[in-house]
Backbone:
């Protein structure tokens, strides 16, 4: 493909498995390396991803992966969204809104435990305030 690629991430999985994630033409893609064959799958697009920025990802002990990123909303700001990647293919879930308040989000961060619980933090712009709020949410 000829589009510019950015935000590439590589996460190790159990055994010799791995997953790579990247932004290409504003969309998110994933490919997984199977430890049994040593081959990478064909790229799979994250359903519903568009104009993605600030991609973050983490995996649990089983290799299940959560992706968090910002994408533009209809109010000229950014929403914080997430999706999951499981299995060898990988199978990617549709985009789910994570933001819980009005206003543009920035600076997402993500940590995932071995058991699969994820903590996401971000800055949330709030009308009438000169400084953003820091928000956090646990995903299981």
Residues:
């Amino acid at each position: 493909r000829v589009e510019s690629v950015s935000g590439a991430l590589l996460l190790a999985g159990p055994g010799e498995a791995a997953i790579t994630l990247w932004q290409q033409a504003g969309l998110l893609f994933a490919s997984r390396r199977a430890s049994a064959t040593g081959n990478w799958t064909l790229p799979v697009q994250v359903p519903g991803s568009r104009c993605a920025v600030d991609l973050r990802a983490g995996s649990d002990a089983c290799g299940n992966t959560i992706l968090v990123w910002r994408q533009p909303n209809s109010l000229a700001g950014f929403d914080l969204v997430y999706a999951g990647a499981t299995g060898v293919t990988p199978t990617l879930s549709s985009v789910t809104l994570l933001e819980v308040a009005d206003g543009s989000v920035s600076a997402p961060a993500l940590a995932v435990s071995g058991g699969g619980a994820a903590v996401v933090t971000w800055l949330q712009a709030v009308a009438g305030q000169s400084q953003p709020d820091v928000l956090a949410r646990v995903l299981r």
